[in-house]
Amino acid sequence: MCSTIHAHEQNISFISLLPNVSEPEKNVSVADTCVASNEMKNKAYKICREFLSGSWKSISSNDMVFKTVGGGLSNLLYYCSLPETHTPLCGEPSQVLMRMYGQIQGDQDASTITESIICTLLSERALGPKLFGVFPGGRLEEYIPARALVTEQIREPEISLSISRKLARLHALQAPLTKEPTWLFDNMEKWLAVRNEILPNSIPKAVKPFAKKLMEFDYKREMAWLREIFKRAQSPVMFCHNDLQEGNILHMESKESDGSSADENLVFIDFEYCSYNYRGFDIANHFCEWAYDYSHPEYPLFKESIDQYPTEEQRRAFLEEYLKTLKSSSIHGDIDPKVNTIEHLLEETETFTLASHIMWSLWSLNSAHSSKINFGYWEYGAARLRRYLELKERLMERLELSSS
C-alpha cells in the first residue's frame, strides 16, 4: 500500500488504515460525482461477477451494496457486498474490498507489482487477507470485520506469543524478490535527501528546538558506522514486514467463539515496507513499538513510555516462541545454528534497535516536510533520535568492555 496513511499517524479501524483519504475536489458538482460513482459501481459489479461468480452472477448492479471507503492518488478502495436477499452459493465471499491503484508510474508502478506478489503469497499462506482476484489496475481482497490492536494489547502475553509465531512464519517465506538487504539504508538515504529541501523559515517556531536536532545531526556518519556494526551482528536476511506495530495487526473478534486459535485471530496488514531485510530489525522494531502509543488524543498525538519497552524476560519469551516456530520451518536448515539461539537473538535485536530509532527519526523528518497529517513529526523524530543516542552510548560501553 504505497500511499497508505502510516499507522504511526492513526490507529483506527482496518478500513481507514488502508489508503490515504483525500478531500473531495471543490469544483466537482454533485451530479459529476454521482456519475463517477455509478461508473465505478458498474465496473466493480462486473469485476465481482467475473472473479467471484456464485450469487454474484445472479444480482444486478443496482442490487450490489457499494460504498467508497477512501481514496488518494495511489489507492482507491471500495466495499462491495451481496444484498441481504442473497447468500453465497458455493463458498464465494459475501463481501469484498476492491482496490484500484489509481495514478501510478515509474517506481510506484514497480512497487505495486511487488505488493501484489506479496499479497498473493501471504494470502496463500494465511498470513494476510485473502486475495480473490488480480486484474489490470487493481485487485479484490478479503473484507475483514476487525479492528487494529492497540499498544496495550501487543504487550499481552498471549497476543505477544501469537505475534512471534506469525512473524517466524512470515520470515520463513520464500518470496520472488531481491534477496539483497538494501531496504533499510535505501530508505534512509532517500529520506535524508529531503533535508536539503527544507527551508529553516518553513519550520514552525514551536517545533524549532526539535527540528534543530534532526536538521543538524550527522546522519551520514552514523549510517556509515551502522553498516559496519550490522556486518558484525550476524543477522540472517529474511522476508520481513518492517513495520510490525499495533496498527498493522488486526484482531478478528468474530472468530473468538468459533474455535479458532489465537494465531488465526490475528492478521498482519500493510505490506508497503515488506522486503528482504535483517531479521534483527524486524523483531527489534516490533519491540520498540511497545513503548509508543499513537492513539494519544493530545498533541503531538503520540506518547512515549520507555518503561513499557519489553523486559528481558518478555523478550526471552517472545524469542523462544519465535525460534521454536522458525525451527519447524523449511528455512531453518539454511541458517547457521550459532545465530539461532536466544542469547544471540537478544544481542542481535539490541543492535538493530539502533536501526529502528534512527530510521524512524529520518522518516519523521521526511514526513514533517511532505505530510499534511496533523502529527508531531518533529517531536517524534527528536524522541527517536534521543533514544538512538542513549542506546548507542550503552552499546559502545559494552563493546569496549568485551574487547578489553
How do you describe this structure in short?
GO terms for molecular function: choline kinase activity; ethanolamine kinase activity. It comes from Galendromus occidentalis (western predatory mite). By secondary structure, the chain is of the alpha+beta class.
CATH level-four homologous superfamily name of the largest domain: Aminoglycoside phosphotransferase (APH), C-terminal lobe
CATH hierarchy: architecture of the largest domain: Alpha-Beta Complex
Order of helices and strands: HHEEEHEEEHHHHHEEEEHEEHHH
Number of E strands: 12
CATH fold-level label of the largest domain: Aminoglycoside 3'-phosphotransferase, Chain: A, domain 2
Kindly report how far apart the N and C termini lie. 48 Å
Number of domains: 2
Helical percentage:
40-55%
Helical/strand content category: alpha+beta
Note the total helix count. Answer: 12
